[in-house]
Amino acid sequence: MDSSVIKVSCGALTASDAGKSVEFNGWVHRRRDHGGLIFIDVRDRSGITQVTFDPADAETFARAETLRSEDVVRVAGQVRRRPPGTENPKIATGEVEVPAAELDILNRSLTPPFVIASDEEPAEDVRLRYRYLDLRRPRMQRNLTLRHKLVKAIRDFFDDNDFLEIETPDLIKSTPEGARDYLVPSRVHRGTFYALPQSPQILKQILMIGGLGRYMQIARCFRDEDPRADRQPEFTQVDVEMSFVRQDDVIAMMEASMRYVWQRVLNEAIPDPLPRLTYAEAMRRYGSDKPDLRFDLELVDVADAFKGSGFGLFAALAEHDGNRVIALRYRGGASLSRREFDALTDVARSFGAPGLAYVSFFPNENKGSIGKIITTEIRSALKRATGAHDGDALLFVAGQSKSATDIAGRLRLEIGDRLGLRDASKFAFCWVLGFPLFERDEETGEITFSHHPFTAPLPGQEALFDTDPLAITAQHYDLVLNGYELGSGSIRNHQPEFQRKVFKRLGLTDEQIDDRFGFFMEALSYGAPPHGGMALGIDRIAMIAAGETNIRDVTAFPKNQQARDVMMDAPSTVPQKALEELGLRIVQPPPA
RNA sequence: GGCGUUGUAGCUCAGUUGGUUAGAGCGCCGCCCUGUCACGGCGGAGGUCGUGGGUUCGAGCCCCAUCAACGUCGCCA
Fold first, then answer.
1. Which nt is closest to the CA of A199, judged by C1'?
2. In the complex, which nucleotide's C1' lies nearest to the CA atom of residue A41?
3. CB atoms within 10 A of CB A169
4. Residue closest to B6, CA→C1'?
5. Beta strands at A429-433 and A276-278: parallel, antiparallel or unpaired
6. C1’ B22 / CA A30, Å
């Protein structure tokens, strides 16, 4: 090839390139064989270029006839404008084409199990089995490109703000709390195990003790729990820790990072500052500690409207403070059919509700399951409380406060879905603060931490430790986006005496503390600075930014819901010799 | 582990009240075609209806069990 030939990508050519000698590589996207003329669309990540083959060059033409979808080619030729009337405005390179002077078939492809050049969406198990083909599709190329840009912007932001990106190890000590650890057996130290980090929590705190000041890392984390649409057994966080900061300093830095990223990557201005809710407020108004604020529907307490009324159930519930009678306004809900209300009732039941009471407001009339018992007084009280008008419906969830709140919160999202209010192109961030430091484990009845044991209480609340620990508020903050928890952060305990007190309050003995956290307690004892930080889930950020609802669609090689990699077929058995070296024996061999 | 949805051709799907030989589009194979770009025309191959059992004269369809994928609850400091 002579030096005047320019190597280009498939999406690069425009009319101004006409006359240039170029070469490019790619996959056969489509073939249109007209008998005496063949068109091949050659595709790479950047786009598509149309290549033409003329029978005048019999040898090249004959080879072009053998091309099939996803064969890999190198093409060289002189760019020319397409004949007038044959331009394709649908693609960026549609004004030009390249008549092939040279065609190298670099590799052949089997017939793919699904068509790359199609809008048909293959089932996910097929996509994951042939992930390398799925990755060629526009959706994955777009999502992974976006994810790259998000991560790049995050790194740039923290670099601009004097953070150091520091790698922490993946082979660490198990700290038997919280989620299940992935364990890695040690060959050198037979019978012992490393644990993969659930997060670099302790290590980043030790970096603060190490005087690094401001740390960040794009960190891989591992939790051996069942996957979900927004949870993978291994996932990526932007992990941040700062020394000599208070809660508001961390919050300001983290929300500035998101503001920067959203502006730069999505060209979206997000509010400054971001809205803040207390945990109690979020639960009361939205029935969730990760409220979706893309729509303003709120849970309204209407017990008062029923107090002393003839409606036995609600009236009775209204007499006790531990209960809630919650109304949800369903805009335009009066036009729903009985069938649709029955479907909503089934949904409510699936959330654990015993049933669903509802009323539809019409001028001078109420309909619905409890329409008959709504007096004029109750009707106007309900309308006043919820802002409902004629044409709207109210759904009622009543019962013990915790469960009623939870059910109503989920029903709220269901209404949002049905009214199309959860718009994937909208972004509603908020902070949730004021979480309790401790909570009671429902099973054991023991006091346990609600976030992690390194979280500091609000200053001045230490005295409650022995009298009313559940009343202590943590210096803990969650960043929420569109109903997803992006991540949590906190100010940490930096004084060893106090950290020991927290551990003991959690029921650990001095021996247990020293065994599990001795190195950390010791580190705290050598002048640990006040510090705090946060970690945000990159997968979830990318998922929401991409308008996806599943993090597998922004992850190159995700696990399925059984935590399997179906492409590699992992996990898998290992040779007996490997087990012997590790001193392991499989008690119950897997079925053959 | 519970609940829900789905499972029919390589892919995406349809399949009525249980009734003849289970269909479509795309893809694939062959032939034809010099301006297509979702090229077109003609012809063709391709099915254990997830699996096992049952009911029935007869099952893709009904019943039971089971497996798998997805969603969700439990779980996820």
1. B77
2. B37
3. 11
4. A123
5. parallel
6. 32
Domains of chain A: 6-107 (2.40.50.140), 141-277+430-555 (3.30.930.10), 295-422 (3.30.1360.30)
Q: Which of A269, A266, A203 is nearest to A237 (CA)?
A: A203
Return positions of chain B under 7 A from a protein CB: 1, 3-4, 10-13, 25-29, 32-40, 68-77
Written as tens digits, the pLDDT of chain A (592 aa) is 456 899 999 999 999 999 999 999 999 999 999 999 999 999 999 999 999 999 999 999 999 999 999 999 999 999 999 999 999 999 999 999 999 999 999 999 999 999 999 999 999 999 999 999 999 999 999 999 999 999 999 999 999 999 999 999 999 998 766 899 999 999 999 999 999 999 999 999 999 999 999 999 999 999 999 999 999 999 999 999 999 999 999 999 999 999 999 999 999 999 999 999 999 999 999 999 999 999 999 999 998 888 777 667 787 777 777 899 999 999 999 999 888 898 899 889 889 898 899 999 999 899 998 988 889 999 999 999 999 999 999 999 999 999 999 999 999 999 999 999 999 999 999 999 999 999 888 777 788 888 889 999 999 898 898 889 999 999 999 999 999 999 999 999 999 999 999 999 888 899 999 988 999 999 999 999 999 999 999 999 999 999 999 999 999 999 999 999 999 999 999 999 999 999 999 887 555 4
Q: Measure, in angstroms, how far nucleotide B57 C1' is from residue A123 CA.
A: 40
Nucleotide showing the shortest C1' distance to residue A55 CA = B34
Distance of alpha carbon A320 from alpha carbon A477, whole angstroms: 31
**Distance between CA A245 and CA A490 in Å, rounded?**
11
d(CA A26, CA A100): 14
Residues shown for chain A = 592
Report the protein residue whose CA lies nearest the C1' of nucleotide B39: A32
Nucleotide in closest CA–C1' contact with A117: B38
What are the CA-CA distances from residue A399 to residues A283, A285, A301, A372 (Å)? 15, 16, 12, 21
Instruction: State the pTM of this model.
Output: 0.95
Q: Give the nucleotide at minimum CA-to-C1' distance from A346.
A: B4
Note the CA–C1' distance, A505 to B53, in angstroms. Answer: 58
Q: How far is the CA of A138 from the C1' of B39 (A)?
A: 22
